[in-house]
Design goal:
The chain has about 270 residues and is mainly beta. The protein is built from one helix and 19 strands. The strands form five sheets. It has a five-stranded antiparallel beta sheet, with no helix packed on it. Strands 1-2-3-6 form a four-stranded antiparallel beta sheet, with no helix packed on it. It has a four-stranded antiparallel beta sheet with strand order 10-9-12-13, with no helix packed on it. The radius of gyration is 30 Å and the shape is elongated. It starts with 5 loop residues before the first helix and ends in an 8-residue tail after the last strand.
Amino acid sequence: MRSFPGHLSRTFALVALIGSACYLFAKDQPPQVLTWPQSGGAVLRFTFGKFKEVGSIGSQRSYVIDTQAENLWSKPLTDASFLLYLYDKNKTRIGEGWISLSNLAPGQVVKFATTIAAAGTPASLSVTPKQLPAELAPMAPARKVSLTINSVPQGAVLKVDGVDAGETPKILQLTAGKHTLHFSKEGFNDGTFPLEIGPDDASGGSVSYELGTSAHDTIELRDGTVLTGDLLSLTATDATVRIAGAAQRFDRNQIKRILLVEREPAQ
């Protein structure tokens, strides 16, 4: 075995120690700085330190993050809360936390620790407002309502406002206002359903659209129900429709519109 003078051995040991320290430092996650909002005049600057794991149960891990918030606004920030989302290296969201700020003067900096649980190892994060003071309300993201969209039969291609949204059944997050749902499935007529979500509507509702074939009429009721059948009669007070072989009567005021297919006259 080759030996080295004592001063060379100490030199090699020092180089190894420096290399190890550099490796450890490289693994330390640099602070992540986020400004809110991302466009327009900045109101807040968040600075997040490295993720410090403090415990784990199975795939769930708990982290503490050194957090700093600075008011970049020209006015005091009276009361605001933000959702903190954690993502892994594949940009999959793996955790969710909460940040609350109050009485933050212009230019003031506040430091605190944020504790959050995640299903995996976090690599990046983002913030989105949950509650804002009235003067910042226009900067809040549009409120969304969770809605289940289905069709009869299932497996129809769904478009919302002209944008592909997958196949039914589908759970969507939609903003308040008017939307247009379009359904298409091979062997059935395409269907369009107008949907309006009110500002106070709650999540958890559903829409079911029945796809018709070229052999049947389509009856849309005022409650949003769409029926496929054969219109047998229509008077000033009611309509009779044969659905799945059985005749059903509907009050005129229940019906919003009727789409009639073209039929050859009886010989």
